[in-house]
From TrEMBL:
It comes from the Eukaryota. Residues 30-76 are annotated as: Disordered. Gene3D superfamilies: 1.20.5.340. It comes from Canis lupus familiaris (Dog). This is Masticatory myosin heavy chain 16. Residues 48-62 have a biased composition (Basic and acidic residues).
Amino acid sequence: EQENVIDAEERLTQMMKTKMDLESQISDMRERLEEEEGTAASLSATKRKLEGEMSDLKRDLEGLETTLAKTEKEKQ
């Protein structure tokens, strides 16, 4: 019976260590998730900004192409 008690205590100790390790891993993963979510939000904002700039540049290019076409037509 004493052996069973010692066995149970050892298993309990091992389970407690495992639980602490797993809780630490969960904490680390939560921190990493928060960092990754922050990075994703930042990248998304940068993407939206660049898409807006690209749209402006396309509009400018279309305007220049129209002006060039009119100028070439007037030369003829």
